[in-house]
Amino acid sequence: MLKPVQHFLLVALLSFSVVASDDGYLSPGLTPAELQAKLDTEAPPLLVDLRSPAEFGIAHIPGAINIPSEELEERLDEFRHDNGVLIYCINGSRTLRAEPVLLANDIENVYHLEGSFQGWLKDKRPFEKGGVKKTGW
Fold first, then answer.
1. Run of H or E residues at 106
2. Which of 28, 69, 72, 115 is an S-S bond match for 94, by CB 3.0 to 4.6 Å?
């Protein structure tokens, strides 16, 4: 259960964000249901939340790691994954900026979450809160 402050922040993030349309994405999109199905397999994609550590700490998709969009270029090696990588943020804006960087650096099998994290929550999919999960440390 979310504490009142966390609930307020989550509602505020959802209420004041502008949702990016699927037009303009360079990678294939997965719906929340499609992503959930992939996460439930033995070979799930790497799930990367591009939001800030503070946003990640409020709520994120279970199993996601946090690589803030500002750190993207310094952490490109962490995106190389045999089962592909799905990137998401709260409304798609950071995802749209990250896609060309990943693709230009030969990161293969990049996907985005249709509806972004807002869509995940609206679809009543599970989420975790707290702690930043990192790779390679």
1. none
2. 69
Distance of alpha carbon 85 from alpha carbon 70, whole angstroms: 18
Q: Is the pLDDT score of 7 beyond 60?
A: no
Residue with tokens 């004041």: 16
User: Which of 69, 67, 71, 116 minimizes the C-alpha distance to 97?
Assistant: 69
Secondary structure of 25-89 in HEC code, one letter for each residue: CCCCEECHHHHHHHHCCCCCCEEEECCCHHHHHHCECCCCEECCHHHCHHHHHHHCCCCCEEEEC
Q: Is the Cα torsion angle 121, 93, 128, 86 positive or negative in sign? A: positive
Q: What is the pTM of this model?
A: 0.78
Domains of the chain listed by start with CATH number: 4-122 (3.40.250.10)
DSSP-derived pairing of the beta strands 29-30 and 46-49 = unpaired
Q: Residue 6's pLDDT is what?
A: 53
Closest by CA to 113, choosing from 48, 43, 52, is 48
* 59-100: pLDDT as tens digits: 999 999 999 999 999 999 999 898 999 999 999 999 999 999
